[in-house]
Design a protein that fits this description.
CATH topology of the largest domain: Neuraminidase
Strand order of the largest sheet: 1-2-25-24-23
Bound molecules: heme C
Structural class: alpha+beta
Number of strands: 25
Strand content: 25-35%
CATH class of the largest domain: Mainly Beta
CATH architecture of the largest domain: 6 Propeller
Helix content: 10-25%
Number of helices: 6
Shape: globular
Number of domains: 2
Length: 472
């Protein structure tokens, strides 16, 4: 027996040695891609959490040596891992050859957006309202005909009757970084907007570079202001982390904003790539926060009396929450968060609870190694639902309109990776049904039920604002 297994090992070694000797080998590169890169760059190389390899855009160098070095050493401060301990130089060459070949042969063709869809309970039609933005992230309706839309590159637009105004709103802060996942992210109106006109924004705030710093610190920041004659005015900063809590990374900002029935403002801050800090309440990252509309701290927030704690924290142990919505009946907060590889979560948020990241997770590291062997622990909350493999879960909204009566109170969930829209039916804290109602259209980033009862979906690659309404 021993002898035989020795033989096997020798045989394997010869096989591995032969594959190394082949140097850049695109078919082998494809295999490596499928094993290690699909998760973040997409099955058709169209992009997911990571960039697209079919759009001829190489942000970090377009020559083969630069691309190879980005794969080998990773891209500092973004979520692009270093592969030098997983892949040898020839394997890196192979995967680079493969992705460059695909890019060269691509004349980006996005799948056609269907005009009509029949789903289980409702047929609906899709209208593309706009395709002029770079990366639409969020939409907030002022009334049936008018809305505000953020473009991640740092612009805020008004949309009138389904058309984006040509001119962006002037006077938006200029200290927004938009590298990687950072940018101008959520927009939300005050529940009393008609009376007070307050508009709330979340964005990746970049500090001035300090002496000796290669990359300036950045962090999620929440502001509000008024819009007067196309200008952003009366700005107030509602949440800003202490400067020593800023980080040079450019991913995991969270940034969704909602108001509950009592007018509290909730917002999310992702772990900023420092997972252990999600468990530490002296850090604002990896948390869901609650403040008053004017930025002051509610007296009954759970950690206000703990020394050194960030007083706005409402729940903790989160990775990167980019979807949040208030349940139409219970009025409680639900939020989705991106898992690592595997383990995207839907959570029913409750005060002071620990949602477990990174002590418990259903996911693993992107190179396949283990983050923790635990999926459950005492004192830590289980997700109401999780997706393995990850769907790269983004925004969510409960349906509370009148156009689709059979969808009342269902939760709609967007996916960046599978480019689909899902309808979830909840029974208490359980998900009892999941239907994919739109499949493979575009990376779906944002979703909002409009005051007219239609569903508005924001897509990236291609960048679109899409309206779903009943098929009469
Ligand atoms: C954990 C997710 C993740 C995995 C896994 C991953 N990447 Fe990336 N990759 C990223 C992110 C994020 C970026 C930066 C995207 C941006 O700027 O928005 C990136 C950027 C890149 C770039 C630079 C693109 C450019 O525009 O210049 C290359 C090349 C690349 N990745 C190759 C790979 C290869 C090859 C693999 C598999 C061996 C891989 N990546 C696996 C997340 C990932």
């Amino acid at each position: 027996m021993k002898f035989l297994s020795r033989l096997n090992i020798t045989f394997l070694t010869i096989m591995v040695a032969t594959s190394i000797a082949t140097k850049a080998d695109a078919p082998q590169g494809k295999k490596i891609y499928q094993q290690h890169c699909v998760e973040c760059h997409g099955a058709e190389l169209q992009g997911a959490i990571g960039s697209s390899f079919i759009d001829h855009v190489w942000n970090y160098g377009d020559e083969d040596w630069a691309i190879g070095s980005n794969v080998k050493f990773g891209i500092a401060n973004l979520e692009m891992p270093a592969w030098k301990d997983v892949l040898n130089d020839d394997e890196i060459k192979s995967v680079v050859t493969y992705i460059m070949d695909v890019d060269k042969s691509s004349s980006i063709k996005y799948p056609e957006i269907p005009t009509h869809v029949n789903s289980e309970l409702h047929g609906f039609k899709l209208e593309i309202l706009d395709d002029s933005l770079v990366e639409p992230w969020s939409i907030a309706f002022i009334n049936e005909n008018s809305a505000l839309v953020t473009d991640k590159v740092g612009k805020l637009y008004q949309m009138q009757n389904g058309k984006i105004n040509e001119e962006a709103i002037k006077g938006i802060p200029d200290n927004i970084t938009n590298i990687g996942q950072s940018g101008l992210l959520d927009v939300m109106l005050d529940p009393d907007y008609a009376k007070n006109g307050w508009v709330y924004l979340s964005y990746s705030h970049e500090l001035k570079k300090k002496k000796g710093e290669k990359t300036a610190g950045a962090m999620t920041r929440i502001i509000r202001g008024h819009i007067k004659d196309g200008k952003w005015v009366d700005q107030q900063v509602l949440f800003q982390a202490p400067e020593e809590r800023y980080s040079a990374t450019r991913h995991h900002y969270g940034s969704r904003i909602v108001f509950d029935k009592d007018g509290y403002l909730y917002f999310t801050v992702g772990d900023r790539g420092a997972k252990e800090q999600a468990q530490d309440v002296t850090w604002p990252n990896g948390k869901l926060h609650r403040i008053h509309k004017d930025g002051t701290i509610p007296k009954d927030n759970p950690f206000v009396n703990r020394k050194g704690a960030i007083p706005s924290i409402f729940s903790y142990g989160h990775r990167n929450q980019q979807g949040m919505s208030v349940h139409p009946i219970t009025k409680e907060i639900w939020a989705t968060e991106h898992g690592p590889m595997g383990g995207d979560e839907l959570n029913h948020i409750r005060r002071a609870k620990n949602f477990g990241w990174p002590e418990i997770t259903y996911g693993v590291n992107y190179d396949g190694s283990i983050i923790t062997e635990f999926t459950a622990k005492d004192g830590m909350e289980q997700p109401a639902h999780y997706w393995t493999p990850s769907i790269a879960v983004s925004d969510i909204d409960f349906y509370n309109g009148n156009l689709f009566p059979k969808w009342k109170n269902n939760l709609f969930v967007t996916s960046l990776k599978y480019k689909d829209l899902r309808r979830l039916v909840l029974d208490g804290d359980k998900v009892v049904k999941e239907e994919i109602i739109l499949k493979g259209v575009a990376r779906l980033r944002g979703i909002t039920v409009g005051p007219d009862g239609a569903i508005y979906v924001l897509a990236n690659s291609p960048s679109l604002i899409i309206r779903l309404s009943p098929d009469m």
